[in-house]
Design goal:
The chain folds into 2 domains: 196 residues, Quinone Oxidoreductase, Chain A, domain 1; 131 residues, NAD(P)-binding Rossmann-like Domain (Rossmann fold, 3-Layer(aba) Sandwich). It has 10 helices and 15 strands. Pfam families: ADH_N (PF08240), ADH_zinc_N (PF00107).
Length: 353
């Protein structure tokens, strides 16, 4: 439904103050354009979800350059409240989300531009985007569920490509991408194994996903956790690893993968140390593992987002069971700290209204 077009928006911008205990974002009021570009839409944001990347950038840990004092976050869901004069595919009332890499429309583009890094993100109550960079979201989902899809969902979707019914996947951790991957894996008939350092978190997951029983491995209890993975898989190893740790965990992941298997490198949560990779090349050769870093933290293309939404809509998959905690918009700084401390099991959502 059309509504009065606002002249300003509320947004959180990073403070770029990385000292412990300081506020990582500051609420500001900014002008919106007096008129929309012909092919752009104005989106009223209802919900935003956080990823580890957001907390890492806010705390100065991102390995790539970011614009100073930028707006965090790249997972959002909202509705079109105004459209430019030459928009073709979107109209007022559509439920939508901007794509994470706004240059990645088909997966074949050379350029890239990541939300909340190369350009401002989505931690605001209104957004303006060219319609080419916006996808429709499934209409049956709540706003809280819908905002999980653009980054965490598409990253998990892209990381799981190439594995089929009856195969096995090792999923590291209990963050947003990992829990979305677990959800998709079980829906696709894959055998999933989840690693965590928290018995409490693993017990909660086993209670939530009890049929069929979920296999878990505590990597703090078993530093050589590949041995437990091999034990679970009868000495074979998994077909796919969703790798979120980086150099600190990659060798163990290789040892957990069957010969000829796949590792999708989607994160860098662990301490990065090149010395941890001394065994990398020999293991790659010995185990013939396909190490895919192209399915990284920039999620996927607009086409990938559209495909995921179509797949979810076909079975009306819900996502409420992977939402860990909800914060009001004004408490965005607390939400970022919650993720930074690693308290979540699943996704953290910021409710704008």
């Amino acid at each position: 439904m059309s509504e009065a077009i606002p002249s300003t928006r509320r947004a959180f911008r990073r403070t770029d103050d990385f000292t412990q205990g300081s506020a990582k974002v500051k609420l500001v009021t900014e002008n919106l354009p007096a008129s929309l570009p012909p092919t752009s839409v104005l989106i009223k944001v209802h919900t935003i979800s956080l990823n580890y990347r957001d907390a890492n950038i806010a705390n100065g840990g991102n390995p790539w350059p970011v614009i100073p004092y930028g707006i965090p976050c790249n997972d959002a869901a909202g509705e079109v409240v105004a459209a430019g004069s030459r928009t073709i595919n979107l109209k007022v009332g559509d439920r939508v989300a901007p794509i994470v890499d706004t240059e990645n429309l088909t997966g074949r583009e050379n350029a890239r531009s990541w939300l909340a890094a190369d350009e401002d993100g989505v931690l605001a109550d209104y957004l303006v985007f060219d319609e080419r960079k916006v996808s429709r979201l499934p209409s049956y989902l709540s706003w809280e569920e819908a905002c999980l899809i653009p980054c965490a969902g598409v990253t998990a979707w892209s990381a799981l490509k190439g594995v089929g019914f009856g195969q096995s996947v090792l999923i590291q951790g209990t963050g947003g991408v990992s829990m979305f991957a677990l959800k998709l894996a079980r829906a696709s008939g894959l055998r999933a194994i989840v690693t965590s350092s928290s018995d409490k978190k693993m017990k909660a997951l086993q209670d939530r996903y009890s049929n069929p029983p979920l296999s878990t491995v505590n990597y703090a209890t078993y530093p050589e956790w590949h041995r437990k993975v091999l034990e679970i898989t009868n000495g074979v190893g998994v077909d796919l690893v969703i790798e979120v740790g980086g150099s600190q965990t990659l060798i163990e992941s290789l040892k957990s993968t069957r010969r000829g298997g796949v590792i999708s490198q989607v994160g860098y949560l662990g301490k990065q140390n090149a010395k941890d990779l001394d065994e990398l090349v020999p293991l790659l050769i010995d185990r013939r593992v396909n190490l895919s870093v192209s399915r990284g933290i920039n999620a996927g293309s607009k086409q990938d987002l559209d495909d995921l939404c179509d797949a979810m809509s076909a079975v009306e998959m819900h996502l409420d069971d992977i939402i860990d905690f909800r914060f009001p918009f004004d408490d965005a700084d607390e939400a970022i700290e919650y993720v930074w401390q690693g308290k979540q099991v699943g996704k953290v959502v910021v409710e704008v209204d």
